[in-house]
Amino acid sequence: MDRTKAIIFGATGQDGSHLADLLISKGYEVTAVSRRCSVDNTQRIKHLLDHERFHLVQGDITDASSVINILQDIENVDEVYNLAAQSHVGVSFKQPGLTWDITGKGCLNILQSIVDLGLHCRFYQASSSEMFGDSYDVNEHGEKYQNEQTKFLPQSPYAIAKCAAHYMTRLFREANGLHASAGILFNHEGERRGENFVTRKITKWIGNFVRWKKHVADEETEWESTYEPAMTFSEDDIHIHPKVAEGENIKFPKLRLGNLDAFRDWGYAGDYVEAMWLMLQQEQPDDYVVCTGKTYTIRDFLDEAFGYIGIEDWSDFVVVDPKFYRPAEVDYLRGDHSKIKEKTGWEPKHDLDGLVRTMMEHDLNGII
Ligand code: NAP
Ligand code: GDD
Q1: 187 near 333, Cβ under 8 Å?
Q2: Residue 209: per-residue pLDDT
Q3: Is 252 in the pocket of ligand 2 (CB under 6 A)?
Q4: 298 CA to middle of ligand 1, Å?
C-alpha cells in the first residue's frame, strides 16, 4: 500500500512532535529528523519511537550534505516540513550567527536540495509573527492587527533570519515552481512548550511551587492525588516555609520575568499543526497567517495562571528582573486569520482560558 510520506525537520521540538502525532494519525509514513545531541532530545516524541510508520534519522539543517542525504534516502517523499530553528528570540541577540545559520540558511539548504534532487514534494516553512516586529495595520474599529499584507519590520536577529527564510520560500515558489507555502504563525504554546518561553516558564514555576508547598507542608502527602486546583495560599507562606523557624532552610525562589507589558496572540500548538497540514493540501501554494485574533499581555497570562490555583494577586510571587529584558522588543501582536479560515476552514479551538487550563493541568500533574 502506498502511503503518503512526510519528512519533518525539527521533529523533536514542540510543533514537530504535535505534527508527527497528526501525520501518524492520518496514516502517513513519517521520517523525523533530529540533530545529534550529547543527551537524549527525543522526550517529546518518545511515544512514537516504536511506531512502525515513524522513522527517526539524524541530521542537521546547517549541513547541506546531511539534508541532501535525508531527502535522497526517502523515495518519492510527498511533504517536507521545515520546523527546525534556533527559535528563542532572546537567545538570538546573544547567538546571532548560530541563529542565522539554522533559522535562516537552514531553510535555503532544504529548498536548494529539493530543487537539485528534482523532487516533486510540497514544502512548508515555519515563518513567524516575529517578522512583523514593530509593524501593524489598523482596522475600521481602530484596532491594531497583522495579516498577510502587513509589512515586516523585524526587531531581532531571529526575526531577520525568519524573514530571509520566508522570502526564500516565496522565491523558490515563484522562480522554481515549487509547491512551497509559509505559515506566518503567531505564538502558540502548550504542555510541550520549551521551558524558557514565557508561558511555560510561568506554568512550570506554579506547578513546582505547588508541589513544593504541598511537600513542605506535609511530607506524607501524595500531592498529586489530594491536590485541589481551587486551594489558596496565604501570603505568609510564599517562599519561606514555617519550618525555616525550626532551623531548616527551606525556601522557594520567586518567579523572575522580564517585560510584562508586551501583547501576544497566544494559541494552542496542537491546533496550529493542523493549519500547517491544511496549507500543504491546497492545490496552490501560498502564505497564511495563523493566530487566534485575540491579544493579551504577560500580566493577563499571569492573572489566568495564578488564578487557576486561586491566587488573585501574584505580585508577591513575581520579580521583574532586567536580565530578561531584550535589547529590542516586539510590543504588540494580534493576528487576523480571515484568509486561512476562508481558504481552508481552519479556526483555532482554544482560547486563552483553555490554553492555560491545559498547561496548568499538565504542570500540576508533573507528567513529563
Ligand atoms: P522548538 O520547540 O524550539 O523546536 C525547534 C526544533 O528545531 C527542535 O526540534 C530542535 O532540535 C530543532 N533544531 C534546532 N537546530 C537544528 C539544526 N541545526 N538542525 C536540525 N534541527 C534543529 O520550536 P517550536 O516552538 O516547535 O517551533 C517550530 C518552528 O516554528 C520553529 O521554526 C519556530 O521558529 C517556528 N515558530 C514557532 C512559533 C511558536 O510560537 N512556537 C511561532 C512562529 C514560528 P532540538 O530538539 O535538538 O533542540
Ligand atoms: N522568554 C521569556 N522569558 N520571555 C519573557 C520573559 C521571560 O522571563 N519575561 C517577559 N517575557 C516577554 C518577552 O520579552 C516577550 O515580549 C514575551 O514575553 C514572549 O516571549 P517568548 O515566550 O520568549 O516568545 P516570543 O514572542 O519572543 O517568541 C515566540 O513566538 C514567536 C512568534 O511570534 C517564539 O516561539 C518564536 O520562535 C516565535 O517565532
Answers
A1: yes
A2: 87
A3: no
A4: 22
User: Could you say which ligand is closest to the alpha carbon of residue 196?
Assistant: 2
Residues 303 and 309 sit within 8 Å (Cβ to Cβ): no
Active site residues: 128, 130, 158
Q: What is the pLDDT of residues 18-39, one digit of tens each?
A: 999 999 999 999 999 999 999 9
Whether residue 86 contacts residue 13, with contact meaning beta carbons closer than 8 Å, is answered with: no
Q: Helices 64-73 and 106-116 meet at what angle, rounded to 10?
A: 50
Model confidence pLDDT, tens digit, residues 294-330: 999 999 999 999 999 999 999 989 999 999 999 999 9
pLDDT in tens, 123-179: 999 999 999 999 999 999 999 999 999 999 999 999 999 999 999 999 999 999 999
Could you report the per-residue pLDDT of 258-295, keeping only the tens digit for each? 999 999 999 999 999 999 999 999 999 999 999 999 99
For the chain, strand residue ranges (E) read 5-9, 29-34, 54-58, 79-82, 122-128, 137-138, 144-145, 179-185, 188-189, 255-257, 263-264, 267-268, 287-290, 296-297, 318-320
Cα–Cα dist 192/209, whole Å: 19
CA neighbours closer than 13 Å in the CB half-sphere of residue 169: 29
The enclosing H or E element of 66 equals helix 64-73
- CB distance 199 to ligand 1 below 6 Å: no
Cell numbers placing 320: 521583574
